[in-house]
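Entry for iron/sulfur cluster complex. Fields follow.
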Amino acid sequence: MTDDLKKIIRDQAYELGFDAVGFAAAHADPKDAQALSKFLSLGLQGDMAWLNNTDARRGDPKALMPKAKTVIVLGANYGPHEDPMQAAVLSTRGTVSVYARGRDYHDVLKKKSKRLGRWLADTHGCGIKVFVDTAPVMEKPLAQRGGIGWQGKHTNMVSRTFGSWLFLAEVFTTLDLSPDNPEPDHCGKCDRCRKACPTEALPEPYRIDPRRCVSYLTIEHKGEIAPDLMARMGNRIYGCDDCLAVCPWNKFGRPSEEQAFWPRPELTAPRLSELADLDDAGFRELFSGSPIKRTGRNRFVRNVLIAIGNSGDKALLAAAQKLLDDPSPLVAGAAKWASGRLSDA
Ligand code: B12
Ligand code: SF4
Ligand code: SF4
């Protein structure tokens, strides 16, 4: 009976556009809570105080829904249609990570997960709760327990079918469904992701130091960035895909069929000089519906200035100098760094 029901749920999830579906028991695994406490005790969360404030709940799915018995773990393929690193060699352009080139995945997956949850509640009279990314849920270990992939040495979840390009979401339910088998680790001797990292943010296999990660620095970190890290960031202006892009399991993946994740043409290799010119209103207009709106104009222009500083192209010096007196100290500081670096180039 439970297997029949699981098949019906799986089919419904596929119909709604999910690409991977698994079932995990809604109980805490002490290993996850311990790994999280260790992570926090080392201060690795940096500016992400929300990880600290929610740690008691994050380690245990029941803390979010005491009556939950099963977590339906869901994956959505956002595999790129083009080489994700193609803009990395274009010095006057920026590289936006694949996940942020289309529409905000939170909005897209929330809608689909809610539809799945509502259908389940209506057809089976159960309780449900839906989560995507921002709730205090340890999504990757749950997805691994639900069998849709394993946490690779870059710490993200890798799928044998979709490589490193899966977004995660969950529907918690009071239905008691048999858990799937956890996916074993298939990294083997491979170490490509760690070698590819531009800032050495993966000091050991399966460990990340977010404070060095370009994704953290460009999206989460609110202040100035240390000069040695800025110099290593290249032209990555929002997020980073280097460790994901080199994963050999990507060869089994395929481009996403979800049009909402397809890149907006202007974000595939945007011109740094145009982005540096954005004011608040221009930023909000350009990035409405995009995850990029999250950083606000100042942090984003800081990132663009770092890329300008790293471009080695003196034609961009004027764009940096124009921002030396910007009212935002963050922007003015990055403009000073970029101008100095280009003048020396
Ligand atoms: C905080 C966060 C970040 C932080 C920290 C990253 C991190 N690895 O934790 C920053 C800002 C850096 C980040 C970056 C990115 N993120 Co993020 N992020 C999250 C978030 C909100 C929480 C993750 C978390 O709990 N971290 C805390 C630590 C403790 O967890 P951990 O690193 O997984 O630690 C585990 C392992 O290290 C292991 N471990 C620890 N010690 C040891 C020792 C040994 C020996 C072993 C074997 C294991 C082990 O156990 C820990 C617990 O399981 C999740 C969403 C969610 N709610 O889960 C999304 C999430 C992980 N991010 C996601 C994405 C897409 C990204 C980026 C690719 C975005 C981009 N292109 O820029 C990058 C990838 C960077 C990277 N290599 O991880 C996706 C990943 C999807 C997937 N397939 O896994 C998620 C799941 C969001 C989603 N719903 O889709 N992210
Ligand atoms: S996202 Fe980029 S900076 Fe962060 S760990 Fe991966 S390769 Fe390193
Ligand atoms: S690049 Fe290699 S080590 Fe890293 S996650 Fe992929 S298979 Fe694992």
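NOTE: The first strand starts at residue 20 and ends at 25.
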